[in-house]
Fold these 2 entries.
Entry 1:
Amino acid sequence: MSNLRETFLEQERRTLSPYAFLTSNTRGRDYPYVPCEMRTEFQRDRDRILHSQSFRRLMNKTQVFIAPTGDHYRTRLTHTLEVTQIARIIARALRLNEDLTEAAALGHDLGHTPFGHSGEDAMQELFSKDFTHYKQSLRVVEKLENNGKGLNLTWEVRDGILNHTGRCMASTLEGVIVKFADRIAYINHDIDDACRAGILCTEDIPKELREVLGETHGNRINTMVDAVIRASTDCNEIRMLPEIWEATDRLRTFLFENVYTNSAAKGEEGKAKEMLGQLFNHFVRFPEQMPELYRRSIDEEGVKRCVCDYISGMTDRYAIETYKKLYIPRVWSN
């Protein structure tokens, strides 16, 4: 069988933009690994992420609505898939490295806590004010996954995961695409979920923003994606057309004011944070009750660091069930 990997690498050299990051230029992995004849390094990273336990757990982690009973609300997994789809569209249109973009997008939220950003807030209060879900995502792929061996991902994918949000920018255009795709995805699907929950209706969005961005979920995504592609074509920078960027930023502010901080979507947030606080304090007192994976680094890194890893990796459902086992008496029957 011919070496497909070399064929793919040659295709990149022939077809990608001069601004694309070529797989053959990767800084590589922390630990040497025999190359795969069927996949490039970034394709291999994508597959490692897809088959990881932390990726599967995203299906039961909150996006905005805590432990929703409806079947159609976004979870952290569906959010990740929507980010990946948007990121791939942009990368393909700009002739950038789609494999690198896809891998970073799939891995960007692997370290997210249960109960969304309320869980992140809880870890900042309980463990460290420097705790962030993007730093934890990097820790997951470097240290916690694969029974403590990590996924041994390439430097560029890890860089894209770490820098998908906040002020820092990824070192590759492909990594920067993930930052834009993440914002485009969550702004639009959070509006969709808020409308489904009866918190918002489309008419609540300021008319001037609807006129610029579009009246429907699909129209707004198309407008934003098109604005990134048009502003970034034949350019060594990922950006968005100024008018669309301003409207997108105003729409995000509207969501913070009407959904993220002042709505029924946050009604259970206090309970979730209190529950995580009790779990955290319990396992600090009784670390022997944690799985062995999370106990093995206690001497090296301290018990709170290891408890933070354990709780951050929990799904909403697992956190609730663990809390019930520890604090809710079981009904006795003969």
Entry 2:
Amino acid sequence: MKKWVLGLGAGLLALGAVVGARTAMFAPEAVADGSKIKVATAAPFDVNQAAEHLGAAVRFKTISNQNAADNELAEWDKLQAWLAATYPKTHAAMSQDKIGQTLVYSWPGSDTAAQPIIMMAHQDVVPVTPGTEKDWKHDPFAGTIADGAVWGRGTIDDKGSLVALFEALEALAIQGFKPKRTIYLVSGHDEEVGGTGAEAASKWLATRKVKALFALDEGGVITSDTPMINAPAMLIGVAEKGYMTLKVTANAAGGHSSMPPKEIGTVNLAKAVVAIHQNQFAQELRGPAAAMVEVFAAKAGGLTRLAVANRWLLGGLITSKMADSPSSAAMLHTTIAPTMLQGSPKENVLPQSANALINYRIAPWDNSALILAKTREVVKGLPVTVEFGEKAPREPTPVSSSTSLGWQLIVASAQAGHGGVIASPYLVVGGTDSRSMAGVSDDVYRFAAITLATTETRMIHGTNEHMTVKNLESLIAFYARLLATAAG
């Protein structure tokens, strides 16, 4: 017995030594800061005038409806004419090409050997849900300035970035800035309904053999109350999940509901949907989510640092904790969401065909073919078919570097206005136009230098969307510093 106790004690001591050593030596892998970058001073600008400009941009109803026939195409023409009139120095310095309603601006650099940079912000916005207009503090398309903010649909997603980019470019042009790297500004017209404009812009750039140092679009922000550290953090998207929908169909004899047979299509469909939903993909701490957790653990210290430094032992606890929040859980796996059901056209008719649409957001380590195969295996034995939906699957994007020059330029330019705030890689669980730039850029990043509490992100695509004047000022200054530092 004594030998057993001594052996156990020795084992525990050895385990403690390993855990302690790993904790002491722990540091985030492959995440650079911007300390080696000399950041240029932002060109001067008038933030109050910029707020007026953002309010004006909101008034153009460039709404991407689900049915494109409902779009008011003239609103895009009006917005683009307004941009030209409002930012004359920028339009004099940059050439402009239109691909449909998508805009591609080019400001030629003096060093033709230097890789260009691509800045992005889209023109369109989502509709306001009918019946919710009364819930807004201010008319969602009035661009009202009140309570230290600009209110309205698109102030954050994404006309805030569009106006901020033009304000920064105009300030640089007025100052007489001459870029060494060529600057491209890509402004898609339909990001909210698929991003065909950005795809066309990418092909346009590819024909000109563009290979940018980096592309920067929306996607991540500075969260003021970041989980794990309870402090601000810059979440810079280095990848985004893929997108696909599967259609599950159950065919049956149909007929009158007063004489139901043993096999009913809607019941078989329900069984299939439940089986698919119950067989979720395993949650794994890997990829951008793992890099993010490492950065946060290094900042938090204490038991958090100990747990992350010893994921081989305590990884399950970390994953379990992250899974408590839908937003963080989504970064750990491919998600499965049944979204639409269709059966009989009348309540007393048994459908001959019932179907369900299952939406998947694909983790960087999965792919559409694997998901289709798994789903078919899950419903094997049920009288249903599983096929891809109408839209072709969109695979996950490549994961961009968090040590590259592009990463460091973005981090340094952001931290110059937010000293002491850490920067972390981040997996964007939604979709952005930037995914189309993977073939024409070494790295693609998704970040806007605005500060939001985690609860405030709900207003994006929701009610009472607004951009504070303070955030607008931060965003313009960030773009002005980044453009002058990266291209100067």
